From TrEMBL:
Cofactor: pyridoxal 5'-phosphate
Annotated keywords: Aminotransferase, Pyridoxal phosphate, Transferase
Keyword Calcium: no
Record protein name field: Putative 8-amino-7-oxononanoate synthase
EC number: 2.6.1.2
Pfam (any one): Aminotran_1_2
Family: Belongs to the class-I pyridoxal-phosphate-dependent aminotransferase family.
Organism from which the protein derives: Gulbenkiania mobilis
Length: 409
């Protein structure tokens, strides 16, 4: 029999959050091991559930959700998103500019498929949420990674962005609040990115899925609100702010200057129609979620569960010799650095695999987020304080053994 190979389109596609180390973790679980999973921002397994009123609305409307909706989504749901976009000061947004999808992930892939031809380039942050790089590659484009500067609070390096713009650059991706670093970008920095996009006629893709998961009183600014004359596509959804990841409800909003992008928008409409519609059941959660009590505001307070767990995780990690970490201002993650003088790691995926095998803790290596060196990893701080203390205690024990083994203690 002839071997059946995967498509060449997948040659440069990588998503290590659910990659080879996770497969090894599954085999260990099948053998009876209990794994503490700090690899994915999935709130429900850690006791963060969607608010009751959201679930009740979905149940009440279940019979109405039996058929297809409009390819862009239910009218009431898109109307609620439009109002939210107006609250965030996104310019020039109407109902037809809003697309509801099966999570933001589907819409990211759709937006890239509608835009890119072979050889087109998209500026993507390093580190990034790796689906962005994968979606660019899958669409036939090249992801060009601009650096975020850890010494500057993980803010994008404007000079590096400028240096990487070429005649083939079509767009820039801005992940704010950032996954995996937790950085939240100030308006002045966002304005600099807008100016580069304006100067070089780039589309701005704004991933804002964590725009309510903010700590220490930090405020979020949508970059599209600063760019009325630039084409922007802003992504958001229910998975994080409303702890409804399994509902697979996301949306994208096209704003700014759209007259020159009619052909691209026609492509978006075509792709939206080809998948008929997003799941209708989940769409009934949107109006209640956006218009109801924002329980996330309580969770992120210093005494709220997420606020306490962030502080504890940051403290436990930075107490380990040779580990430093910029304290996140948003999202659900820490992205600590391992001092290369103390931890001479050459293959960080192998490093994370050894941690899993020895301590039964599952993390994701920094290069899985397209970081440039094997000296970081991402920690999800969703577990309760007892489990978080146990997990990071195991990480500390593994790192102590690593230092002893390499004579750097």
């Amino acid at each position: 029999m002839q071997p059946v190979h995967k498509s060449q389109k997948l040659a440069n596609v990588c998503y290590d959050i659910r990659g080879p180390v996770l497969e090894h973790a599954k085999k260990m679980e099948e053998d009876g091991h209990r794994i503490i999973k700090l690899n994915i921002g999935n709130p429900a397994p850690f006791g963060f559930f969607a608010p009751d009123e959201i679930i009740e609305d979905v149940i009440v409307n279940m019979q109405q959700a039996s058929g297809y909706s409009d390819s862009k989504g239910l009218f009431a749901a898109r109307k609620a998103i439009m109002h939210y976009a107006q609250e965030k000061a996104l310019p020039n947004v109407g109902l037809e500019d809003i697309y509801i999808g099966n999570g933001v992930s589907e819409l990211i892939v759709m937006s890239m498929q509608a835009l890119l031809d072979a050889g087109d380039e998209v500026l993507v942050p390093a580190p990034d949420y790796p689906l962005w790089t994968a979606a660019v590659s899958l669409a036939g484009g090249n992801a060009v990674h601009y650096l975020c500067d850890e010494s500057a609070g993980w803010f994008p390096d404007i000079d590096d962005i400028r240096a990487k713009i070429t005649a083939s650059t079509r767009a820039i991706v801005v992940i704010n609040p950032n996954n995996p670093t937790g950085a939240v970008y100030p308006p002045a920095l966002l304005a600099q990115i807008v100016e580069l996009a304006r100067e070089h006629q780039l589309i701005i893709y704004a991933d804002e899925i964590y725009d309510k998961v903010l700590y220490d009183g930090v405020k979020h600014t949508s970059i599209a609100s600063l760019a009325p004359d630039v084409l922007c596509v802003t992504f958001n959804g229910l998975s994080k702010n409303y702890r409804a990841a399994g509902f697979r409800v996301g949306w994208m909003v096209v704003s700014g200057e759209k007259r020159h992008a009619r052909d691209y928008i026609e492509g978006l409409n075509m792709l939206a129609s080809m998948r008929l519609c997003a799941n209708v059941q989940g769409q009934y959660a949107i109006q209640t979620a956006l218009g109801g009590y924002q329980s996330i505001d309580d969770l992120v307070l210093p005494y709220g569960r997420l606020g306490r767990q962030r502080d504890l995780a940051h403290q436990l990690l930075t107490e380990i010799p040779g580990v430093s970490c910029v304290k996140p201002q948003g999202a659900l993650y820490l992205f600590p650095r391992l001092d290369p003088e103390i931890y001479p790691i050459t293959d960080d995926q192998q490093f994370i695999l050894e941690l899993l095998q020895q301590e039964k803790v599952l993390l994701v290596q920094g290069t899985g987020f397209n970081w440039i060196a094997p000296d970081h990893f991402r920690v999800v701080f969703l577990p309760n304080t007892d489990d978080l203390t146990e997990a990071l205690g195991r990480v500390a024990r593994f790192l102590a053994a690593y230092r002893k083994r390499h004579g750097t203690d």
